[in-house]
Amino acid sequence: MQSLAMDLRMLSRELSLYLEHQVRVGFFGSGVGLSLILGFSVAYACYYLSSIAKKPQLVTGAESFSRFLQDHCPVVTETYYPTVWCWESRGQTLLRPFITFKPLVRYRNELIKTADGGQISLDWFDNDNSTCYMDASTRPTILLLPGLTGTSKESYILHMIHLSEELGYRCVVFNNRGVAGENLLTPRTYCCANTEDLETVIHHVHSLFPSAPFLAAGVSMGGMLLLNYLGKTGPKTPLMAAATFSVGWNTFACSESLEKPLNWLLFNYYLTTCLQSSVNIPIETAKQNPNVALVLTSHGGHIGFLEGIWPRQSTYMDRVFKQFVQAMVEHGHELS
């Protein structure tokens, strides 16, 4: 009886120690928990490396342009590693404005008049402290066009300016009518199909610095506007090169129809899903144009393209922008 009592006390003590250890260590410290976590991590890593992290597809109609980009803009051939915990496109687009660090940029504002009596707000970053281009008359100028409701305060615009500052370039942001706090003097606002305001801005900027290399970069609707301008103006433009990001293709006629209530319910969602797997709509056209290159990533958001564990700094889109404008300014003569 005494022996049985001692055995019970010993068993109780061992059980108590075991339970205390399990409570203290918890699920994540137990063998089963570690095995599950390790297995899930390995499976996720394999999926990420095989299906998410991929090299972009480079499409262009000229072998010389392709070689130029590979030599001077190598980011277009490197594997893009989206943020491992947020690689889905909608998540990246929603997350970027909240998580990405906003560089401090001090602007000089200029209001210019339009032919119809309106006004356009331009925010200049003159970069007068540039050591690479101390002569303002020859300092490269980058015209930046934000998205639909974007202004010079958007994080992606600020990062482009920050990277341009490192290169010694000057930037000017084209704010569409009425979006940057200036008074709207006419009933007219803006749309990507009307390039008159952009033509006015480009003419104005070029007249101020006719001897400086002049480039432009547009994001989302800003890119659509820029492409429409280039298609209309052709070789007469004073721009030596342009870069666009996250631009919709051939959206004018279809968007008006598909946004009608019944069509949206019956077709829009399905067609949008199908279009995601039909991204080759503009590819064949690009292959026929020696002056155009497409860089198609497998993942990334509309303006997100986040990368790294904690994506507070520059993104993949920012790196493409920096390398492209630097390549065109410093080596663009090779293409001619």
TrEMBL record:
It comes from the Eukaryota. The keyword Lipid metabolism applies. It is a single-pass type II membrane protein. InterPro entries: AB_hydrolase_1 (IPR000073), AB_hydrolase_4_sf (IPR050960), AB_hydrolase_fold (IPR029058), ABHD4 (IPR012020). Keywords: Hydrolase, Lipid metabolism, Membrane, Phospholipid metabolism, Serine esterase, Signal-anchor, Transmembrane, Transmembrane helix. Residues 140-245 form the AB hydrolase-1 domain. GO terms for molecular function: acetylesterase activity; monoacylglycerol lipase activity; phospholipase A1 activity; phospholipase A2 activity. The chain crosses the membrane at residues 25-49. SUPFAM superfamilies: alpha/beta-Hydrolases. Belongs to the AB hydrolase superfamily. AB hydrolase 4 family. Phospholipase that may play a role in phospholipids remodeling. May selectively cleave myristate (C14)-containing phosphatidylcholines through its predominant phospholipase 1 activity, cleaving preferentially acyl groups in sn1 position. In parallel, may have a minor phospholipase 2 activity acting on acyl groups in position sn2. In addition to (C14)-containing phosphatidylcholines, may also act on other medium-chain-containing and oxidatively truncated phospholipids. This is Phospholipase ABHD3. The gene is ABHD3.
